[in-house]
Amino acid sequence: MQDFHPTDCYDWSGGHWYGGGQTQEMAWPIEKGSVTLSPFITGDIRQHQWGNVLKRYFINSNGVAVLIDPDTPLYVSVNSERPRQFCLQARHDDFAYVHLSATPPRLNYSVCTSNNMKSLHSFFSEKKLWDGLKQEDLKVINSLLTEPVWQIPTSPGSDLTEGAIYNYTENVIALGFLRQGHVLLSESWQPHVGDFALDPVRFPTMDEMINIIHRRGFRIVLTVQPFLSTESTNFAEAVSKRLLVSERGSEPHIPALTRYKHVASAGMLDVTNTRTVPWIQAKLRALVDKYHIDSFYLDVGTAYDMPHYYSFENQPTNPDQYRSIFTDSILHAVGVVGVSSAITRPKAPVFVSLPPFASSWKSMQSIIPTVLTYGVMGYPFIMTGAVGGDYEETQGHDAVATDSATGVGNMSSENGRTGFHLPLPDKELYVRWLQLATFLPVIRYTHLPSKYGDEHVLEMAKVFTALRLKTVSSQDFTFCIHWSLNIYYLLLDHKCDGSVS
């Protein structure tokens, strides 16, 4: 029965299809692209078929929706094995959908119809978006919509330091027209990934520094992750307490190792283990208590960042369910403003990041189709990458890698730590990107507009900052919801042939 793979295919000829997630070509609608038959799990579109945010939901402009059961070991192809067809397949494998029993794979999905796409999508749209939100949650959402997110760049070969944070925030204030907002620090605030402690060498007086940053009106956000470098101070403890994902079939318990960005060897916290969640929650609460950290950004990685032969205490149906479990676990302990990957919408005020985009005209053209796709999938709170692009596109993949959590290119420095560096984007590209970002839910900066030394760039930044405050931020939450719950109005009331004007 190992070769039994139930498959259903649909012809593209009737209407247009939307949903699923970002693909390598980011075709809009879906049928204009091509996806090789592959597991429907999160990944990096530069290497994999699907992106960082997925939903097992596809909708046709003629009023047909397909919803695939979360327990189905799902593979999807588009215009690949069968031209002009969209295919769903159930398949067990040795990674994404581990065959743990002799039961054959089951392809279980529902087909729902209506007389039009609008009414059908309205039926599936979330109706209780604001239920259970505290006043503090609403303030966080409002701050992300009305204030920028700042990602501090460093020069090549250097590290993120207190001085870099101090100087960057000072330069923001000196501009006079940009609000303070959230200062987002990548995982390099730690000596090693998984230490969950500030580097005492680069941040010797961070408690005092954070007080200064707070007085300036900024908020501090630390990036954390479920990965622990084998060199981290916590790795040995995590092994002894059996807090890590184990190697499949190992006895006694042996941690399964993987790569994570620049870390060549790392373990992964097993949050299905009841001992692990209190452990990581305590680590993060200690950071909040000691340094008065405002919130955290969760870089949960993608399915392909997991150890290949993983085994959990309580085995999830597929590796992407891990991301939801980890996010929910952290949300119960500390404030969270963003997450790098998702298969279900995290509870507000958590914003889901767009994937990192290269600093190029081609990448900028992919932003609108990606935002629209995420909107159709029901993600109202979207956090974009840096104005001008997140990393420099090079011929060699190792020249400038991408930080998928913060959307900033990273370069390994000589001392083994990681500094973050994105060369100043093309000036015209930066201005056009700024125009686009003005009308997205969150605006994020790496390079300040003053870095160009050009009055035209600075004036454009002032104009669009004022425009955003007047016409975007003034609409508060209504603007944010527009991108997801009502995004199908763009498809129905304008063009439905895949073009975006």
Structural class label: alpha/beta
Indicate the CATH topology of the largest domain.
Answer: TIM Barrel
Q: Describe the biggest sheet?
A: 8 strands, parallel
Helix content: 25-40%
- The fraction of residues assigned to DSSP E strands is 15-25%
What is the count of structural domains?
A: 2
Give the number of DSSP strands.
Answer: 24
What Rg is obtained from the alpha carbons, in whole angstroms? 22 Å
CATH superfamily of the largest domain: Glycosidases
Q: How widely separated are the two ends?
A: 49 Å
The CATH class label of the largest domain is Alpha Beta
Biggest sheet, spatial arrangement of strands:
20-19-18-16-11-10-9-24
Shape descriptor: globular
Q: Write down the overall mean pLDDT.
A: 83
| Number of helices, where a helix is a run of at least 4 consecutive DSSP H or I residues | 12
Could you name the ranges where pLDDT drops below 50 across 5 or more consecutive residues?
Answer: 395-420, 476-501
Give the name of the CATH architecture of the largest domain. Alpha-Beta Barrel
